[in-house]
Amino acid sequence: MTQKHTTPDGLVIVDKPSGFTSHDVVAKMRGIARTRRVGHAGTLDPMATGVLVLGVEKATKLLGHLALTEKEYLGTVRLGQTTLTDDAEGETTGSTDASKVTRDGIDAGIALLSGDIMQVPSKVSAIKIDGVRSYKRAREGEEFEIPARPVTVSSFSVHDVREAVAADGTPVLDLVVSVVCSSGTYIRALARDLGAGLGVGGHLTALRRTRVGPYKLDSARTLEQLQQELTVMPIAEAAGAAFPRWDIDARRARLLANGVRLDMPDVYAGAGSVAVFTPEGRLLALVAEHKGKAKSLAVFG
């Protein structure tokens, strides 16, 4: 009698290769994990590499909540050229000599793009405008505006400034930068806006995501490595790392599992999503405080 294959519930932290969409990675993982129940938290552009968090089986319920956490990136911004997509994937739409841009000017431009800011996403992003993806409208040559959205850039640092010459002979500056930001922040929009503010234009030439919430590159695996050995972070460990932990007794666990809204300790007020664990250490639910009670966001049984 053949043993039935079972895929464990949990997260898979992938080091996404360049040239793959997030959906490509999900499709690959469905084959590796031998299950249709795979999803991802927070899209990465095809050009970008680095941390992409996938959920397998029951852990797909965590993904919408994980997508809201802070992200960290390492990238290269080219000052002196604009592109259709605000990154190296798109055709060049303008070139300006950037050799006179000073470090003080760069620092001042970055200061304006730090903290709580309003950002207009790239027109070739996945943002929906009246139910249609922005990139689809852009490809069809439509004229449209994307409203600015509030984002938080906690840290925007320049580690190196390199003089270079673009393929068309324009003197450009390549900035090696790191960014820590809220969910929904577009790094290529930061590159575009930094260049625009300096009067020379800019775009993103490389991007690597080094962290999503508590999940870092050191725990990520390439698709090749996962093909050899599927490394799944158990769902309880994954939730314990990402959310405040609330341990409850067996009686309250039964009540919560049956849909009863428990009184929630004051310590979790305003904490957002909270992971609830049974006495055995099993993840029971994600809840949020609502009028002093625990409102279930996802139940894992």
Q: How many strand segments?
A: 18
Strand content: 35-45%
**CATH architecture heading of the largest domain:** 2-Layer Sandwich
Tell me the radius of gyration.
22 Å
Secondary structure tally, helices: 8
Order of helices and strands: EHEEHEEEHEEEHEEHEEHEHEHEEE
CATH topology category name of the largest domain: Pseudouridine synthase
Q: Give the CATH H-level superfamily of the largest domain.
A: Pseudouridine synthase
Low-confidence stretches: none
Q: Distance between termini?
A: 29 Å
Helix-and-strand structural type? alpha+beta
Number of domains: 3
Shape: elongated
* Portion of residues within helices: 10-25%
CATH class of the largest domain: Alpha Beta
Indicate the mean pLDDT: 91
**Which sheet architecture does the biggest sheet show?**
10 strands, mixed
Structure description:
The protein has 301 residues and is α+β, with helices and mostly antiparallel strands. It has three domains: 10-69 and 213-234, Pseudouridine synthase; 71-208, Pseudouridine synthase, CATH 3.30.2350; 243-299, PUA domain (Archaeosine Trna-guanine Transglycosylase, Chain: A, domain 4, Roll), CATH 2.30.130.10. Helices cover 22% and strands 36% of the residues. The protein has eight helices and 18 strands. The protein has helices at 22-33, 63-66, 103-112, 134-139, 187-197, 223-228, 235-242, 250-257; strands spanning 10-16, 38-41, 49-56, 71-79, 81-83, 92-95, 115-119, 128-129, 132-133, 149-165, 171-181, 202-212, 215-216, 233-234, 245-247, 274-277, 283-290, 293-299. The strands form four sheets. Strands 1, 2, 3, 4, 7, 10, 11, 12, 13 and 14 form a ten-stranded mixed β-sheet that branches. The chain has a four-stranded mixed β-sheet with strand order 15-16-17-18, with helices on both faces. A two-stranded antiparallel sheet has the order 5-6. It starts with 9 loop residues before the first strand and ends with a strand.
